[in-house]
Amino acid sequence: MAIGIDAMREGWRSLVRHRAFSAAVIAILALGVGSTTALARLADVLLFRPPAHVVDPDRLVEVNGAPNYALYREVARRSVTVDVAAVSSRTLTFGRNQGAHAIAAQCVTASYFPLLGVRPVAGRAFLPEEDVRGGEPVTVLAWSLWQQDFGGRPDAIGATATIAGRSHRIVGVAPPDFRGLELTRVDAWMLMTATPDLCSFIGRDLLDATSSAWLRTFGRLRPGVSLADAERDLRALSLHQIRNPGSQPLTRELENAIGDRAGARDELLALSLAAAAGLMLVIACANVAGLLSVRALERRREIAVRVQLGASRARVFTQFFVENLMLAALCGLAAWGIASLLTSALAAFFPLLTRDAWLDVRAFTALATFTLGAGIVAGLVPAIQAARAHTVMLWRVGQDIGHRQARWRAALIVSQVALALVLVAIAGLFTRSLILVTSNLGYDLDRVVVAPLELEQAGIRQPAEARRIAEQIISRVSALPQVEAASLTTSSPLGSGLMTFMAMPADTPPDALPQTVHAVSLDYFRTLGTRILEGRPFTEADRQGAPPVMIVDADLARELWPREAVVGTCKKISPARPCSTVVGISEPRRLGSLVKRDGEIFSPIAQRPDLVPFALLVRGAGDVRDVVPAVTTAIRDVVPSLVFVDVRPLEDLANSKARSWRLGAMLLALFGAIAVVLSAAGLYASLAFLVRQRTPEIGVRIALGADPASIARLVLGHGGRLVAVGYLIGAAAALAIASAIRSLLFGVAPADPISFATASLVIVAAGLAGSALPARRAARVDPVVALRSE
Fold it and tell me: pLDDT tens digit string along 205-252?
């Protein structure tokens, strides 16, 4: 104990004496430990944590094939193995006038909270007798919304809140951090039977629709029931789908309702980023190990004096190891702040991380583990080397000093270069994916804003009235000087809208494109910047009562009618509607997730009086950011009762859709840059020590006639060999890792030559930067001074 206390006291004095060195080591390790902790926490949240406050989540199962309320009701009535609940997500408005804001709402059945085993912290959950069509609108607030809008006051229970322009009575408050089975933010829950039009994606009552898909059904296995029992039960129930003949069975496979809540892409992304942070931590440890090894050699005289005065090798080892652990402990404090900042940044991409991560025992345990591990890995070998050095060798100053450690330092440099290449190459692949996924979409991102027209939230529920007001809005917006063109549509390129399916010809291949039908107004294609490749766009002549017309995209036309001249022919959109004349072929586009390619069919909204526009698209004449306030004001002037107007550039929607590529590119580029800097610094430190160690030899060479250029080449060659070996190892590892994460990339091969060429240039530049200064110093050695020092 006394030895440990003395070692700590002496270690602290040593750290204070060498403040610059200590600060550098702490900063390097803190970057690695903090980043790894934050990304490990993300992977933990997405992959390993059960949803907060949900009781016995392993008994929850997904019920496939029941995507609407009619089928949910059949399962709830007939199943003897599972108790079920249903949920549908919507973005609605909360409040009135200037205080109104958007919320993420979930429409649920009354069985939702009891099924999950969740008890509100204030008030109550929904009652079964409230779950009836036309019942009183009631809501349960999320804890965060209760705190934000009501200050956490108890009298909020029983008060009235305005959601989507309608009064809802607040009956309860959910526990903190409860989000159901989802990873997204949820602000309020309300009964779907009370306001069915607000809960469906088209703003209409779909409670009796048997062919629509608009909610998620999940269940809890009843006591004593196995998954196999529930599977048999639900398969049998598929025979009772009288209202929806020919539909798929209620379940082809019972899935755990929790296991895939993050989605395969998010799970793989989280694991990949956590692995990247781990690689950076390894680089940091290797870098620090090299620095500590060099420092131990520089302290050889101090060690020699200690040994000569009777200090045992165990005492020397203890002294160095304790110093290194103290550095790690200080690193842990700095890493805590870095992890906290990085987690806050990640919360913009993954809302589940918004809770106070640093009161989390699991996060603290991970931080402590990574800190201790980094301290041991980085400090153990240098401490052993210091303790095992021979006393006579410790007093030597010549080139044989540290010869045994040369291979160790070389291995550290090679590993740093290899890992840095891996991070830079993968960052290049993500960056290339991000560029490709947001380019060549078939429409402009930087010139267009989109405004959802959720007129039902303003109390406008009659289709004829909604169409009239939509026409007033587009007339007002089109007259703005900031606007070049505007159009109405039933769906925006990066949002949801009216979905239907075309009657396919008999010879259509089974893997044919799914088809999205859009009803649009004039100037739609000019507004978005989508080209008409053949034929014409819609005109004023394509009005109600005129022969029905449509425009199809080039991919769909080529797939359905590969050997026909499509323009001018009459094709059927559905068996229930007359054929429509194809007047144009548009360029193909990427929709929804930015990678999905649907066949698109466009019809004039003037010929579809049964449909209501759901979005306004506006093309700006200048800076798109100047268009947003003008369009917002114009919409509010026409519909003052519309409590919340959300006008956003299309580019912002694309950015949210490109989340995985953007996050991967940002973090991997950051990790790669840090890794490259650390590798260059590690190479510099190793070569600088080598030059200092071999100064007498260099002096002899110069005295015998060696020119400075040859001396510089000697040092550069040594550094180049280390970089070359690291490059070869890193290139092979990068190719293997890129192949493993192929599904996270878009339009880029794992062996993308541009990404690897860029990474190669970065690594070569880092190698030159780390070698140049030591080589310059070696070339300028004065032989007289060098030989005198020997």
Answer: 788 887 677 888 989 999 998 888 888 887 777 644 434 444 444 443
Per-residue confidence (pLDDT) for residue 303, from 0 to 100: 64
DSSP string, 3-66: HHHHHHHHHHHHHHHTHHHHHHHHHHHHHHHHHHHHHHHHHIIIIIPPPTT-SSGGGEEE-TT-
Q: In 3D, which of 449, 609, 612, 463 has the Cα closest to residue 543?
A: 609
pLDDT in the model for residue 264: 55
Q: Quick one: tokens of 514? A: 């799914």
Q: Are strands 579-586 and 549-553 parallel, antiparallel or unpaired?
A: parallel
Classify residue 523 as left (phi > 0), alpha (psi -120 to 50) or beta: left
Number of Cβ atoms within 10 Å of the Cβ of 171: 22
Give the tens place of pLDDT for each residue, 56-73.
Answer: 888 888 887 778 898 898
- Which residues lie closer than 8 Å to 558 by C-beta, 6 or more apart? none
Nearest to 696 by CA among 401, 404, 291, 393: 401
Contacts of 168 (CB under 8 A, 6+ apart): 137, 138, 139, 160, 161, 162, 190
> Among residues 529, 544, 512, 631, which one has the least CA distance to residue 586?
529
31-45, 269-283, 499-513, 646-660: range with lowest mean pLDDT? 499-513
Sequence letter at residue 607: Q
Q: Find the mean pLDDT for residues 478-492.
A: 90
Tokens of 263: 């989605």
Instruction: Please say whether the beta carbons of 103 and 145 come within 8 A.
Output: yes
For residue 111, give both structure tokens. Answer: 């069985």
Distance from C-alpha of 597 to C-alpha of 743, rounded to nearest angstrom: 16
Q: What is the pLDDT of residues 143-182, one digit of tens each?
A: 999 999 999 999 999 999 988 878 999 999 999 888 888 7
The crossing angle, in degrees rounded to 10, of helices 2-17 and 313-346 is 60
Residue 714, both tokens? 């000697």
Amino acid at 663: L
- pLDDT tens per residue across span 520-552: 999 999 999 999 999 999 999 998 889 999 999
Q: Judge contact between 693 and 399, C-beta under 8 A.
A: yes
Q: Tokens 């008409």 correspond to what residue?
A: 532
Tens of pLDDT, residue by residue over 326-342, are: 887 888 888 888 888 88
Q: How far apart are the first and last CA of the chain?
A: 42
For the chain, counts of helices (H) and of strands (E): 23, 20
Q: Hey, what are 193's tokens?
A: 């039977």
Backbone φ and ψ of 425, nearest 5°: -65, -45
Per cent of the chain over pLDDT 70 is 80
Do the Cβ atoms of 489 and 525 come closer than 8 Å? Answer: no
pLDDT of residue 398: 42
**Residue 254 reports pLDDT greater than 70:** no
Q: Residue 761: what are its φ and ψ, rounded to 5°?
A: -65, -40
DSSP letter (8 states) at residue 201: T
Q: For 130, which DSSP code? A: G
Phi and psi dihedrals of 64, rounded to 5? -75, 150
Do you know the residue count of the chain?
790
Pick from 699, 620, 687, 693: nearest CA to 399 = 693
Tell me how far apart the alpha carbons of residues 381 and 412 are, in angstroms, rounded to a whole number.
12
Contact predicate 92/166, CB 8 Å: no
Pick from 335, 369, 327: nearest CA to 12: 327
What is the secondary structure of 618-668 as a DSSP string? EEESS-HHHHHHHHHHHHHHH-TT------EEHHHHHHHHTHHHHHHHHHH
Sequence-separated (6 or more) residues with CB below 8 Å from residue 255: 61, 62, 64
Rounding to the nearest 10 degrees, give the CA dihedral for residues 161, 140, 203, 76. Answer: -150
Identify whether the C-beta of residue 654 lies closer than 8 Å to the C-beta of residue 528. Answer: no
- Cβ–Cβ < 8 Å for 539, 622: no
